[in-house]
Amino acid sequence: MQPEAPHHPAGVDSDDPRFFMQLALDEAKKCVPSQTAFSVGAVLVDSTVRPHKILATGFSRELEGNTHAEEVCFTKLMREASSPRDGIEYTLYTTMEPCSERLSGKKPCVDRILEFGSISIVYVGCQEPSTFVAENTATLKLAEQGIRYLPVDGMSSECRDVATRGH
Ligand SMILES: [Zn+2]
Asked: What are the recorded Gene Ontology BP terms (predicted)?
């Protein structure tokens, strides 16, 4: 099922990264707080069209199996299409930088982003605190593959507050 096109509040450019990061933050707020994990929201956008089109949304633990927000976005999109479609340039918004290591041994989100392909920009709300993993190497891994990694100004403290709910 396609998420409904969001209502763009007056005065907000629909291609403004803050608009989509706010939607990702709204997703993060749906997470059931966890003492042992972060509460993150993500939005996957088709940035080849104007206005940009939301293709999938996700939040931590939304799907079964201790899922991460980015992972949920990919899973939902793959349910509709077996692979990323040619010619689409995807932009991913996530309230916290994608994980580069998971204590559970599951595939880190940064590797899922690289495997998905066609993602040209990852917007990030805040850095991953070193609560569970000492050093997040996602920035480096994405940069090595030519994927732009951009912070969204002014939203990091709220993203961090929501991410650490239940801690
Ligand atoms: Zn992750």
From this structure: nucleobase-containing compound metabolic process
